[in-house]
Write a structure and sequence with these properties.
four-stranded antiparallel sheet; alpha+beta; about 25% strand; elongated
């Protein structure tokens, strides 16, 4: 599932193509993905101009003239693919296609069909069911050591589970939670409310540093993620712990290996020596 860095990478890749462009033709090639496409989507989009492209947590928001917006989730295998022109033969998994007056075409390709496209009318975004309960953006000013300390106070849940809780902080998934906890030297099974102020500050800084580095590297390509221009992400080559069970801890060195722990059905990778 794409996490914040992958979605932000996609947003940045699409921005110069879509923002300011008018959609001259839109194709919706099946009735649904994870959920049905909005009614008359092609008709409602054709002739509209894209005014901005935003990201909220793991969602893309395509702002349109008139105040409407599209809310796009890439799902497990969804990719936004830029073509210089509409291909003669669309791929069978190109389910949603947007042609622009500038020439380039953007195709939403989703082999597993776990993605989604929703329509947001003016004024409906704050109360939208998929957005209203999402916590602060981790790279924004709303995510700070003081704010996060308040969120952790009295919590018995493992700190890894709190990082994955989209109500507490937006967009973090399994990969970047593992990497941030290692950078901050915090064990993933620690009770969230037991973190000291110093540990909370280290963790907030680690989250920001890991996400920023991943965005710079184009995200992580483990299976399906590609940037809109077709390039792969490269942050997976910089993983310190994720997927590295039984390898040496990069902080502790030889003789100390990364361990794997299953938490709520997800693998946590950590060093039991330097993460306490």
């Amino acid at each position: 599932m794409p996490e914040l860095p992958e979605v932000e990478t996609v947003r940045r890749g699409l921005e110069p193509i879509l923002v300011g462009a008018t959609l001259t033709q839109v194709l919706v090639r099946r009735p649904n993905l994870r959920r049905p496409f909005p009614e008359r989507l092609a008709e409602r989009l054709t002739g509209r101009t894209v005014t901005a492209l935003r990201r909220r947590a793991k969602y893309l928001l395509v702002d349109l003239d008139g105040g409407d917006a599209l809310l796009i989730h890439l799902g497990m295998s969804g990719r936004m693919v830029i073509s210089p022109a509409r291909p003669n033969d669309l791929d069978k998994h190109d389910h949603f296609v947007m042609e622009t007056d500038r020439g380039p075409v953007v195709r939403f390709n989703d082999a597993r069909r776990f993605g989604s496209v929703d329509w947001i009318a003016p004024g409906e975004e704050p109360g939208h069911a998929l957005l209203r309960d999402i916590g602060p953006e981790p790279l924004g000013e709303g995510f700070s050591a003081a704010q996060f300390a308040d969120a952790l106070a009295g919590r018995f849940a493992p700190i890894k589970a709190v990082l994955l809780d989209q109500r507490q902080v937006a967009g973090i998934g399994n990969i970047y939670a593992c990497e941030a906890l290692h950078m901050a030297a915090v064990h993933p099974a620690r009770a969230a409310g037991d973190l000291t102020d110093a540990e909370t500050s280290r963790l907030v800084n680690a989250v920001k540093a890991v996400l920023a580095a991943a965005i710079e590297a184009g995200g992580s390509t483990l299976r399906d993620h590609q940037q809109p221009n077709g390039e792969l992400g490269y942050f997976q080559h910089r993983f310190q712990v994720y997927g590295r069970a039984d390898e040496a801890c990069p902080r502790c060195g030889a003789g100390v290996v990364i361990e794997r722990l299953v938490q709520s059905g997800r693998s946590s990778f950590f060093c039991a020596t330097c993460q306490t």
